[in-house]
Amino acid sequence: MKVSTIIPLHKMEQSDLPFRLQTIRQLMEVQDENTEDPHYHNYYEMIWVINGKGTLYVDLVEHPVSDNMIVFLKPDQAHKLQAEKGMRGYILSFTDAFFNMGEYEFDWNCQATLSQFFFEHHAISIPKEMETDLEEIFLKMEKEIENEFPFRIQMLKRYFRIFLIYLTRQLENSTRQMSYGREAELVKQFLETVDRYYKEKKLVSDYAGKLLITPNHLNRIVKKNTTYSAGHHIRQRVVLEAKRMARYSTSSMKEIAYSLGFQDTAHFSRFFKEVSGMNFSDFKKAYPVIQTDETLKRA
């Protein structure tokens, strides 16, 4: 059964450096129809709004953005940034491959920090007094990216690590910190694996097997670090995709159910209601299809 997919996937261009830095102004200058509509990335992205206002739509939720706010976007999150004229800031994009390049490797603390930002937080606010220090780091990273200096990868990783340390300080006194070490890496691997296989695999034991641990151990670690069970994350990921397809495509419930691995529409309908708290048909009525260029063409 063919399912209409209308949310474009933007991939990071193949290069010797899977790490990109651009200003929000540069993005707006080259923004085309695809980036104006909701889209996915296959890479991580941090959007730092130094000053200005706008709205970021992430996975069907509207988030206002304003001065000195940093927003975190994971791969495969449907999103759209509407920035008011004059917004100033930076967009930092990278893939996991960046951290495995060169001799200087990221330690467990850095990986735990990244996991916490991207999997537990949508955005954080930055104090005005920190702005100058952070922008100086960004300008140094920009200089390294633009030039073929020796040890470029090593320098970029060190600057990025310093940047993460600044951000971590903002969390220490206000939020629970994810445990460092093996647990943080395990949670990250689990959530990434769910993103990859949620259409085919919906049992905790499926993911425990891939991670070479027992289901009970996986549940304990995931719940300890995220407050939710592993099963909860799997179910929420399936329903999130169903909601995306319902709002960003003209696919029927039968087509959506099939694409998500449900052979029986009634089973999907029960699953959706149990997890989301509402019937699929009621969701469609409450949240009609978002009109994009592609949906208008199909109409």
UniProtKB/TrEMBL annotation:
Record-linked Pfam families: Cupin_2, HTH_18
InterPro entries for this protein: Cupin_2 (IPR013096), Homeodomain-like_sf (IPR009057), HTH-like (IPR037923), HTH_AraC (IPR018060), RmlC-like_jellyroll (IPR014710)
Signal peptide span: none
GO MF annotation: an example: DNA-binding transcription factor activity
Gene3D superfamilies to which the protein is assigned, alphabetical: Homeodomain-like, Jelly Rolls
Keywords: DNA-binding, Transcription, Transcription regulation
UniProt name for this protein: HTH araC/xylS-type domain-containing protein
Taxonomic lineage of the native organism: Bacteria, Pseudomonadati, Bacteroidota, Chitinophagia, Chitinophagales
